[in-house]
Structures are given as structure tokens and as C-alpha cells.
Amino acid sequence: MEYKEVQGHKDLVREISSNAIINRNNNAYEVAKIKYEEAMKQRDEIRSATREINTLKCEIHEIKDMLTILLDRK
Description:
Number of strands: 3
Radius of gyration: 27 Å
Helix content: 55-70%
Strand content: 5-15%
Number of domains: 1
Order of helices and strands: EEEH
Structural class: alpha+beta
Largest sheet: 3 strands, antiparallel
Shape: rod-shaped
């Protein structure tokens, strides 16, 4: 494959046949992968916490309903 340097960007090259821009800085690629994985982990943690909060809301609602029924019996 033939590459041409991108002016003003030492780590970037353009592949002549496909016109794609490629980052040759492997360290930057690894850092980007790590950031992506951390973002996905954080997203999953937020989703899990949201599910847990919603479950707790439902349980509190059920407890309130039971208390209302108990108080109405008196």
C-alpha cells in the first residue's frame, strides 16, 4: 500500500488507493481503546444503577400501598 503524509499532522497518513486517513501512532490508538472501554464500563454501571433505583421505587410503592391498606382496616 502506498501512503502520503498528511500536512501538519506527523502521525497521520493517507492511503492513496482508498483515500483513507490512518493514524500511525499506536500509543494514541491504545489510549483511545482504553478510554472507550472505560466509557462503556461507566455506561453499564449507570444503567445498572438506574435499574436498581427503579426496582427500589417499585418496592417503596408496594410498601406504601400495603401501609395504606393496613391503615384503612383500622
